[in-house]
Every structure is written in structure tokens, then in C-alpha cells.
């Protein structure tokens, strides 16, 4: 079952339906819980594997599968239950996370765990790199666990440790607060870069999306938060509440690079709203 292939307001979406067609696998478009229940009553299945799904699966659907339902979650459960776990891992400065395969129940990401695959989070990793690493780890994890789930030899373990939770995020959460420290702004840029909507700010009332940036440590920089300094070496540096960041890639709302324009914008200020 896949979501509709129509454009949706999320930053990334796998075209599962087309992949199924290419591999001669039956696929149906999600049309609500009732339609899904009807389908699986008429087409019994052993196990439901859930990945990248944005709805809770009620028990009346899960119970139709002989072995229930399992899900993939991109965190080291019980750490970062809930929304946007990879984004929060970067924002919080985690050095390691994981992808977890667990049994789905009525709670939020709190079911017993079949297995985990660790994922390193480097100090300069961007979210796209982490997503790719998570996708690869998910394949390894499912391949390692699926046979044991199907034959009953792999018994899930109750989640162990202190739970933490992440809120769902929206594009508005990517607006840069230039009064924040440079380290936090750099993490925000890395956490919401491609395939997400990017870190946003405004210059002279025009939206600017910053895709790549890092802390600037080569020299002390003094300026009001959001003030641009174009250095002799061509670097575009922005003062923050503590320290400065160097912008490496930025575009306007139409996807055109604004780096040349920024190099001519010394002493002007980015704003957190238009």
C-alpha cells in the first residue's frame, strides 16, 4: 500500500507504486483505513511491514495480519519517539543514532524491539547524508530480522532505557534566528537541508534558502546578528548572537543561486521575517 503519487506537502516521498509496477508486485493506493481493512480481509497476509508512514495503524487493521505489524523508526528507541527523529538527532548534536525495527501497537513508537542498526552522526553531516545512511541501514535490518519474525525464532524485547520524544516539524521551523549561537544555526542548516525545505531567512524582503553553511572560526567577526560581512577571500560570513557562520550555498525562492549577490551585500542584514 502506498500513498497517492499526487504531489504532497512533504519534503520527500518514494514512488513505491512505480517501483512495484517495475517489479511485478501488486500495489494499491491508500484510500483510508476502511478500504485497507476491506482489502486485507479479502487478501490475507502474514505480516505488515511499515516504513515512511504518516498514520497510526489501528488494531482492526493490524490484527488482520497473522503476525501483526512491524515498523521502522529512524532512532535508537526509546530515544526520539515521534516525529522527525533524524532532523532532531542533528539539531541536538547526537553523535550516534540508529534505525529500529519494532512491533506496532496502540502507542507511539513504544512497541517491543526486534532489532536495531546503529548509524553514526558526524559533526558536519547533512540530513541528506543521514537519510541515505538510514535507508541503507533499514535494508540491512529488515533482511537480518525478517526470517526470524516469520518463523517465530526472533522474539522482540521490551524497549529499555529512558524515552525521549520529538515533535513533528514544518518548513516554518527552518527559519533562522540570527540571535542564536552560530553552532546552533549551523546545525539547523544541516538538519533541514536537502531533501528538506532548507533553512530560510530574508534579505531586503526576499526569501533566501541556505543549503550549506558552517561555523566561521578563522577570525573574530563583529556585527549585529544577521549582518553580512564579505571578506577579502570571497567568504560570505554572517554575524550571529555568538560567533559567525560562513554561507557556502544559498538560493532564492526560485532555486537560483544568490551567492554572487550576497558577495555584494556586505553590511546588510538578514531578517527572520519578510
Automatic annotation (TrEMBL):
GO MF assignments: methionyl-tRNA formyltransferase activity
Keyword Oxidoreductase: no
Domain of life: Bacteria
InterPro entries: Formyl_trans_C, Formyl_transf_N, Formyl_transf_N_sf, Formyl_transferase-like_C_sf
Pfam families: Formyl_trans_C (PF02911), Formyl_trans_N (PF00551)
Domain Formyl transferase C-terminal: 170-258
SUPFAM superfamilies: FMT C-terminal domain-like, Formyltransferase
Keyword flag Transport: no
Cross-referenced PANTHER family: METHIONYL-TRNA FORMYLTRANSFERASE, METHIONYL-TRNA FORMYLTRANSFERASE, MITOCHONDRIAL
Protein name, entry field: Putative formyl transferase
Source organism: Bordetella bronchiseptica
Organism lineage string: Bacteria, Pseudomonadati, Pseudomonadota, Betaproteobacteria, Burkholderiales
Amino acid at each position: 500500500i502506498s500513498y497517492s503519487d499526487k504531489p504532497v506537502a512533504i519534503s520527500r516521498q518514494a514512488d513505491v507504486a512505480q517501483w512495484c509496477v517495475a517489479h511485478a508486485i501488486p500495489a494499491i493506493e491508500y484510500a483510508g483505513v476502511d478500504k485497507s481493512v476491506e482489502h486485507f480481509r479479502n487478501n490475507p497476509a502474514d505480516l505488515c511491514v511499515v516504513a515512511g508512514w504518516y498514520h497510526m495503524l489501528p488494531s482492526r487493521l493490524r490484527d488482520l495480519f497473522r503476525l501483526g505489524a512491524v515498523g521502522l523508526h529512524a532512532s535508537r528507541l526509546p530515544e526520539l519517539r515521534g516525529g522527525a527523529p533524524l532532523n532532531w538527532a542533528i539539531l541536538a548534536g547526537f553523535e550516534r543514532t540508529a534505525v529500529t525495527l519494532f512491533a506496532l501497537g496502540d502507542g507511539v513508537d513504544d512497541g517491543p524491539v526486534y532489532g536495531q542498526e546503529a548509524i553514526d552522526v558526524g559533526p558536519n553531516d547533512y540530513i541528506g547524508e543521514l537519510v541515505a545512511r538510514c535507508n541503507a541501514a533499514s535494508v540491512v535490518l529488515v533482511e537480518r530480522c525478517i526470517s526470524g519474525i516469520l518463523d517465530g525464532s526472533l522474539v522482540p524485547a521490551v524497549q529499555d532505557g529512558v524515552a525521549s520524544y520529538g515533535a513533528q516539524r514544518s518548513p516554518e521551523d527552518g527559519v533562522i534566528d540570527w540571535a542564536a549561537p552560530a553552532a546552533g544555526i549551523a546545525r539547523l542548516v544541516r538538519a533541514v537541508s536537502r531533501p528538506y525545505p532548507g533553512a530560510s531567512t530574508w534579505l531586503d524582503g526576499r526569501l533566501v534558502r541556505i543549503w550549506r553553511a558552517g561555523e566561521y572560526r578563522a577570525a573574530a567577526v563583529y556585527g549585529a546578528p544577521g549582518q553580512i560581512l564579505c571578506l577579502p577571500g570571497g567568504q560570505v560570513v554572517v554575524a550571529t548572537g555568538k560567533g559567525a557562520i560562513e554561507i557556502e550555498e544559498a538560493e532564492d525562492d526560485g532555486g537560483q543561486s544568490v551567492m554572487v549577490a550576497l558577495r555584494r551585500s556586505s553590511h546588510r542584514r538578514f531578517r527572520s521575517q519578510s
